[in-house]
Amino acid sequence: MPLFLHRLVWPPAAPPVLAGSRNPPPKTYTALHRSSSFSAAFPRLLHPCGAGRVEGSSSFDPATFEADRVRLDAEARAAMASAAASAEEGGDDPKAWKWRIRKRNWDIMEAEDIARNPRPVHHRIPNFAGAAAAADSVIMYCILAPSGDCGGRLEVFQKAQCVKVNPDSPQKQVRFLTLTGGKKLLTPQPRLRTGFFSVLESQMLSSGSIMEACTSVGAAKYGRPISLDEKIKVDLIVIGSVAVDPRTGARLGKGEGFAELEYGILRYMGAIDDTTMVVTSVHDKQLVDDIPVEKLLVHDVAVDIICTPTQVIFTNSTIPKPQGIYWEKLSPEKLGQIRILRELKKRIERETGQVLPCGASEKLPPTAQRR
């Protein structure tokens, strides 16, 4: 099946231009000018601020929440750094190729001063120069495009009412524009370790609090926590990436697998299905052509659309989307880090009367271990 590359510019003066066949893929990308019951059982688990507040409490301590988030972030990045170092040393790590691609992109972004705070961008979903412009593309083409624009090619997105967006820095503008565009925003707490998902809507917020609500602390402060029993339909998923292949839609995150876990949980909830489009916003320098599709794992999430500061790319990806959580891929250590997964596992085992499988043990550095 041939894959094609669309390049769009806003406002659209004409239907999108088909750049041509991507087999073989183009070597360069031309820049375009742009105009500017369960909730009752586990109340602490499902509240987005975890230890900072319990369900029903009116108090919220932003400083405590942020300190906990920063601590967990530092520990997780130390764990990723250790995994990356082990991969560079060789051995039998089947994920070593992923770390090499990630490191190359992180190094390029720092060396060419594309990176933006928080820095260094290593072991993060990297913030980048032009992140706001890439966010504009996500919103304009995937969420707010009026009927008839873009040659009618994006009709599937025009009715999006609920958008799930990752909590990382380069997607902050996506979260902001989703809320100010009158859409429902679903965002996870970072690494799912301090909570679950929060829902935010503009009518829940004052005009002066919308920007704060786009931060992790703000989402915990203003968002409505949901449970696994929530009846919600997600129309569009926006995720961050470290590297993405425009030929296939293959994507690499920062190496923890939380985008995949979040996707699997939403599949379990019935909030998404195979038709739910997945979009990523990245810098053009994050586009790569050496992610081997045959080495991807069953839980890896590919993307349908890539938005950069200069272009919008439709990948026409044929990579199968994950169907849920693949418990046999989850190590006991990873399961021990995320309470919502432990409770979900218990729930499924209780409902089915069967013990779910567990993945092989993995060695975590001392800073990443949890009691």
From TrEMBL:
Any coiled-coil regions, as ranges: none
GO cellular component: cytoplasm
Signal peptide per UniProt: none
InterPro entries, A to Z: FTHF_cligase, FTHF_cligase-like_sf, NagB/RpiA_transferase-like
Domain of life: Eukaryota
PANTHER family: 5-FORMYLTETRAHYDROFOLATE CYCLO-LIGASE-RELATED, METHENYLTETRAHYDROFOLATE SYNTHASE DOMAIN-CONTAINING PROTEIN
Name of protein: 5-formyltetrahydrofolate cyclo-ligase-like protein
